[in-house]
Amino acid sequence: MSTIPVIDIAPLVKGSPEQAHAIAMDLGRACREVGFFYITGHGVPKALMDAVFDSSAAFFTGPATIREAATFTGPGGNRGYIRLGGEALDPGKPADVKEAFNIGLELPPDDPELLASAPFRAANLWPDMPGFRDTMLDYFNRVWRLGRDLHCGFALDLGLEPDFFETKLDRPIATLRLLHYPPVTKPLSEGQLGAGVHTDYGNVTLLATDAVGGLMVRDRSGRWLDAPVVPGAFVCNIGDCLMRWSNDVYVSTPHKVVSPPGKDRYSVAFFLDPNPDAVVACLPTCITPDRPAKYSPITGAEFLRSRLEPTYSSKPT
């Protein structure tokens, strides 16, 4: 594929078995050939998406004290505000020119894993902003369901039962990430970008963007493609964990963000990783005599920890 395909996924959930299978094949083709795809027909209301972007902009442009009260908890909890220059997605390059706010799976205060400080189980840090929590949790739950629907398509394409991934994503290490790329008003350091070249770590990412653009995707031939803004659509990509699960049948794709000069850029990413204790092992339908298992089994928490820690090493701002 030389372009990123646009797939209407409504028949995956609401169509006949034949229609669902056809959409699954389209998703599988995109995962094999480019690793990225847009989805329409997803059912997330536009009014809710607008409210999320409005709340995000209010958070990043509001009083600094609100952000400081929700400072990042570190990769072990992966929640809270990450300052400008606090992250380098390409660890070999200068810090990214962006700031972020991470929201994880909301758990009740008496949840046993939360009380035990289990890996990637932590309380969310909610800023003191009216309506912020309710808006974000509504959105989180809708895109979480949408991500599981996509996994039904992946399972069908990979020759599995459609609900194969459901029990592996029912208490996921999922992160809703609000992102702000401030205007670039002076030359950046050599190799510095809004978001450095990277692949995503988990199973699938569902990204909503504003109209500014700047996302670029590297195709299988090594060319960098602009990912144009498709109004109302999510741009999705598979991550390294699903690549590992599929024994490299699906391949994650490097991408980066080049922020256009003089403009604020906002995006909202939802990263769906498996449950912390889910065992990520090569799927039996992805192993053949010519393609033996390439990876040893690993838990979702172990895999994500191995990928997150280098990202937050100390970097110059």
UniProtKB/TrEMBL annotation:
<dbReference type="GO" id="GO:0046872">
    <property type="term" value="F:metal ion binding"/>
</dbReference>
<keyword id="KW-0408">Iron</keyword>
<dbReference type="InterPro" id="IPR027443">
    <property type="entry name" value="IPNS-like_sf"/>
</dbReference>
<feature type="domain" description="Fe2OG dioxygenase">
    <location>
        <begin position="172"/>
        <end position="274"/>
    </location>
</feature>
<protein>
    <recommendedName>
        <fullName>2-oxoglutarate-dependent ethylene/succinate-forming enzyme</fullName>
        <ecNumber>1.13.12.19</ecNumber>
        <ecNumber>1.14.20.7</ecNumber>
    </recommendedName>
</protein>
<dbReference type="InterPro" id="IPR026992">
    <property type="entry name" value="DIOX_N"/>
</dbReference>
<dbReference type="InterPro" id="IPR050231">
    <property type="entry name" value="Iron_ascorbate_oxido_reductase"/>
</dbReference>
<dbReference type="InterPro" id="IPR044861">
    <property type="entry name" value="IPNS-like_FE2OG_OXY"/>
</dbReference>
<keyword id="KW-0560">Oxidoreductase</keyword>
<dbReference type="GO" id="GO:0009693">
    <property type="term" value="P:ethylene biosynthetic process"/>
</dbReference>
<comment type="similarity">
    <text>Belongs to the iron/ascorbate-dependent oxidoreductase family.</text>
</comment>
<dbReference type="Pfam" id="PF14226">
    <property type="entry name" value="DIOX_N"/>
</dbReference>
<dbReference type="Pfam" id="PF03171">
    <property type="entry name" value="2OG-FeII_Oxy"/>
</dbReference>
<keyword id="KW-0266">Ethylene biosynthesis</keyword>
<keyword id="KW-0479">Metal-binding</keyword>
<comment type="pathway">
    <text>Alkene biosynthesis; ethylene biosynthesis via 2-oxoglutarate.</text>
</comment>
<dbReference type="GO" id="GO:0102276">
    <property type="term" value="F:2-oxoglutarate oxygenase/decarboxylase (ethylene-forming) activity"/>
</dbReference>
<dbReference type="InterPro" id="IPR005123">
    <property type="entry name" value="Oxoglu/Fe-dep_dioxygenase_dom"/>
</dbReference>
